[in-house]
Amino acid sequence: EVYLVESGGGLVQPGRSLRLSCAASGFRFDDYAMHWVRQAPGKGLEWVSCISWNSNNIDYADSVKGRFTISRDDAKNSLYLQMNSLRAEDTALYYCAKDFFLYGPGSLPDSWGQGTLVTVSS
Amino acid sequence: QSALTQPRSVSGSPGQSVTVSCTGTSSDVGGYNYVSWYQQHPDKAPKLMIYDVSKRPSGVPDRFSGSKSGNTASLTISGLQAEDEADYYCCSYADTTLFGVGTKLTVL
């Protein structure tokens, strides 16, 4: 069974940084692309970023491009999201998700974690 | 890119069928057969219900079906059950991954 556990969320001031982590188990982590998807309180889903299985393809939503960096450590079965220059509108529950397709570039979030809450406020 | 357009809410009685629409453009929904649907219960993570417009992942009941016509995709739930009450999101994953605004399904 796929198991994804996000961590690293919390309360942070505008302009500061935060690093999210996602620990994966139950599948061959290095065979799948991974995603970050966020959901503001009471709002809908917003795709944030994805990284392909071999890290050759990385993509970001326009809303976070230049501020967020996705990375992965296959030796640790872990996914990361470095978030810089945080804004109030980045406040959301951040989900880590495995891609559906084996060896894909990263397109379709499949199994999701339970999320970690990021609150950006002074 | 703007979120895909969905009705804010739909409703139906147990046993009935309901359809949720998802409208995009020729650059996303209309241009490729890369549309998926997610179900999200309150305070739970989303669950993939449909991918590639009409395919069901293992374990998803065949009461859930998907289709597409032009720039609009649809999710149909037949034989509505109480546990189907949830938020439903469409997603286009062609050039980039883009979600719909979400539809709240109420089972009357």
What does the model show?
The complex is a heterodimer of chains A (122) and B (108). Chain A is built from no helices and eleven strands. Chain A is mainly β. In chain A, a hairpin with a 4-residue loop joins strand 7 (68-73) and strand 8. The termini of chain A are far apart. By secondary structure, chain B is an all-beta fold. Chain B contains no helices and nine strands. In chain B, strands 1, 3, 4, 7, 8 and 9 form a six-stranded mixed beta sheet that branches. A three-stranded antiparallel beta sheet of chain B has the order 2-6-5, with no helix packed on it. Classes of the chains: A mainly beta (122), B mainly beta (108). At the A-B interface, strand 5 and strand 10 of A face strand 3 and strand 8 of B.
Which structural traits does this protein have?
heterodimer; A: 122 residues; mainly beta; 7-stranded mixed sheet; 4-stranded antiparallel sheet; B: 108 residues; 6-stranded mixed sheet; 3-stranded antiparallel sheet; 43% strand
Tally the helices of chain A.
Answer: 0
Through-space gap between termini of chain A = 40 Å
Mean pLDDT, all residues of chain B: 96
Largest interface: A-B, 21 and 23 residues
* CA-based shape of chain B: globular
Helix and strand run of chain A? EEEEEEEEEEE
Return residue spans of chain B where pLDDT drops below 50 for at least 5 consecutive residues. Answer: none
Number of helices of chain B: 0
The amount of beta strand of chain B, in percent, is 35-45%
Strand share of the residues of chain A?
Answer: over 45%
Low-pLDDT regions of chain A: none
Radius of gyration of chain B: 13 Å
N-to-C SSE string of chain B, H for helix and E for strand: EEEEEEEEE
Shape of chain A: globular
Record field, number of beta strands of chain A: 11
User: Helix proportion of residues of chain A, in percent?
Assistant: under 10%
Which structural class do the helices and strands of chain A define?
mainly beta
